[in-house]
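Retro notes
What went well: the complex prediction finally ran end to end.
Inputs used:
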Amino acid sequence: MTTKKVRVRFAPSPTGPLHMGGVRTALYNYLFARRHGGDFLLRIEDTDSGRFVPGAEEYIIEALKWCGIEPNEGLTADGKVVMDANNPEACYRQSARKPIYRKYAEELIAAGHAYYAFDTSEALDALRKEAEARKETFIYNHTIREHLQTSLSLSTEEVDERLRTEKHWVVRFKMPENREVHMHDLIRGEVKVNTSTLDDKVLWKAADELPTYHLANIVDDHLMNISHVIRGEEWLPSLPLHYLLYEAFGWTATQPEFAHLSLLLKPDGKGKLSKRDGDRLGFPVFPLAWKDPVSGETSRGYREDGYFPEAFVNLLALLGWNPGTEQELFALDELVNTFTLERVVKSGAKFNPEKAQWFNQQYLRQKSDIDLAKLYRSDLENRKIVYDEEYVAKVCSFIKDRSTFVHDFWEQSAYFFIAPTAYDEKAMQKYWKPETPALMSQLSDFLSTIDDFTKENTEHLVHQWILDKGLNMGAVMNAFRISIVGASKGPGMFDIIALLGKTETLKRLSALL
RNA sequence: GGUCCGUUCAUCUAAGGGUUAGGAUUCAAGAUUUUCAUUCUUGCCAUAGGGGUUCGAAUCCCCUACGGACUACCA
């Protein structure tokens, strides 16, 4: 690596919502860029007109924004396009760069690194089927290109004629014969492949006048001065082609470094994590909920499921990377300061939903009571419950250790806002004896004599009272809890009644007598 | 089928040839809590298999097995 400025890109295809694996790729790019004081750009690779999904691009931008991993060039989290100051002609949506690519494809043809091919997809499919029937591998390469309808086998006149009159020709890369390509990957080390196993990939299609991924990718990364390509493992098999393309263009000297990330795997069984797994196992695989514009099918998202973006980013960071220390909780800025590609794990990581919840629980606890009260507010409002923030914050202080998500709060704290309407059956069976009502009646009478209803005072006086009367502490306190809470759960009884106040406490006590 | 990548507790992972193979999640038990949760303590659980190299291998090499990705005029 030279002193070249670090510039990385996240280059998704707008064919649907961004998968959490995609978010992780974006995150690692972002961390790497910021760690090295470089640029993180977002480029939309929409060269497949047929697979475009409306809303997908907006989804990607919004998801990155929610995670706090905002690009500083290209399509940004605000949805604006921020241009490279040195390249005012830059555009970051490949469909809008359409005119650029053809020239590069033709440059390759002129240099003898590519050629025109006129075979129809149907003809090629037929050849593939035939080869399959003979149990052979069909490779579109030097063994066959001279025998097909290409500019290598046809006369110049015929080629010109067909280029003029036909609409479905393509430009293919002329894959060299029997050459060992030695590649370097920042995560995997040396990889080598013999070119004889590779195809003459299509680089450009006349039908829509668009490049395929391979050409667009190399041209754009070159033009945008990308220094490091950090992408998913599914691209490793095409790395030799990409190396050869840089070579054919004469760009080897400025070729970026590559790092291929392993995949995120299903929590159970085998294979990579898919949309289905989330539905099947009950966890989101997307950062944000998504409604498919065609099928109308909805998929849940981490945001809508109640995850904090910090927790989501943290758990994603640790899925395939580790700091080498035992620290597990990282704020985004800490990740920036700690992240290195050297510590990215080579093997695929199975996603573990339980650990994901644990992360959220940790972040929930880190929040202040007042912040939690603010987050709780909309839920309370929906339930038509109005309390001042100080009261709600106090409630939050009692329930934060009992919750994983903010949406657990109501279940944990309803009794702070409304008197119990039902009483837990098991608790009643265990603690509500025939003599209990009389006991609670005495307790009620005693409590009504206390004016200073603070936690300290009531706790002291009631304990003394139980002692003086020779009562059983457990019998009194557990029944007391059932009367006030409705169940055998919650923080200290005197904390609860201090917050509820004397009037409400006595009211709830009498409700069960 | 072919090419490439990978393989340490159930899961995420640590251990740059020498440790009783460490941590975290989950699970279990105990302590604390008059309850629930928290917290704390403890426990269970791993180097895929086989060959080498070496005084010594989770670590280096080879083979096998298993897993994954790719194999489109998709990205």
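What we learned: Residues 20-35 of chain A form the longest helix (16 residues).
What to try next: split runs per interface for comparison.
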